[in-house]
Design goal:
Shape: elongated
Largest sheet: 7 strands, parallel
CATH superfamily of the largest domain: SPOUT methyltransferase, trefoil knot domain
Structural class: alpha/beta
Order of helices and strands: EHEHEHEHEHEHEHEHEEEHEH
CATH class of the largest domain: Alpha Beta
CATH topology of the largest domain: Alpha/beta knot
Radius of gyration: 20 Å
Number of domains: 2
Number of strands: 12
Amino acid sequence: MLIPVDDPRDPRLEPYRAVRERDLIGRQGRFIAEGEVVLRVLLARSRFGVESVLVSQKRAAAGGVLAEVPPRVPVYVVPQAAMSEVAGFAIHRGLLAVGRREPMTSAADLLRNAGPVATVLGLVGLANHDNVGGVFRNAAAFGADAVLLDDTSCDPLYRKAIRVSVGAALITPFSRGGTADDLVGALEEAGFEVVALSPAGAEPLASYRRAPRTALLLGAEGPGLPPALLERVRTVRIPMADGFDSLNVATASGIALHHVTRR
């Protein structure tokens, strides 16, 4: 359903208007997917539905992923300048889509269904979209069963987080809400050993032998995890060179996931 649209004020383009600003205030049950790789994941592997697609004239002529869009889904074709005007910034990839959110599964239900051997990530205070997207990319790459986020962490379905995750945020089960204590409590109640990553961790990651149900807990760069939380759970560290004790949190998640999932 290729539908030419020349007027950037056309009401059919309203869901795409001011993308960056509306990422932060919500889209009434929708989210924005950007780029061909992410759209392929959304169409083929995601649990979320596609409402419409916005594509530049040049990209529409090239075909590609548009052939995979269901016939019932409208594909609005606009000049590149109009696309950037609607979105509020230059869309170099020339391709956006609106997805529909589904009701979020509770943390308790996710953990209950994770199986007797499971790996889960818990994120506390991760407000940076790039970091959350990077963690989800690692979670998918190493086969994590779920990601739990507290209510101070950013929404994994922000456009930038989805893009950085290369679509992994669309296929990795997640739950978001509650405090860090709520998150740890749900994990403990479900029989997970909670292991917090911290530069001050009590034991090196290399010596840690995972439990059948293991949850890796990560905090934001800088403040890290709250001290009270570190006192409550087992802690591990990733040894680094003298004089430097800070890894990007997404990098740390990849190292830790590699360690626990290969055993």
